[in-house]
Amino acid sequence: MSREIQHCIRNMQTLPELSPRQLEILNLIAKGFSNKEIADIAGVSLETVKDHIKKILLKMGAASRTEAATLAVNMNLVAG
Q1: Mind listing the domains of the chain with CATH numbers?
Q2: pLDDT tens digits, one per residue of 17-53
Q3: DSSP string of 35-79?
Q4: How big is the chain by its Cα radius of gyration, in Å?
Q5: 78 — phi, psi (to 5°)?
Q6: How far apart are CA 71 and CA 39, in angstroms?
Q7: Burial annotation 48-63 (CB, 10 A radius, 16+ → b, else e)
């Protein structure tokens, strides 16, 4: 795990407040699904998935989907 991610985990005071839908999307990201696959699974548009991901990244302070997924696994928000 990178030092940057370890630093983020140590400095995170509370768990991010993600909606149930955002947690669902984050779980699918952590499982390796593409945005298009997530849209198909969740029954929403690709643009809606992208919007959820932007909000997830903002709430988690993550720079990428990969970083958000790694943080989520380490914080036990999703299964690894």
Answers
A1: 19-74 (1.10.10.10)
A2: 999 999 999 999 999 999 999 999 999 999 999 999 9
A3: HHHHHHHHTS-HHHHHHHHHHHHHHHT-SSHHHHHHHHHHTTSS-
A4: 12
A5: -140, 160
A6: 22
A7: ebeebbeebbebbebe
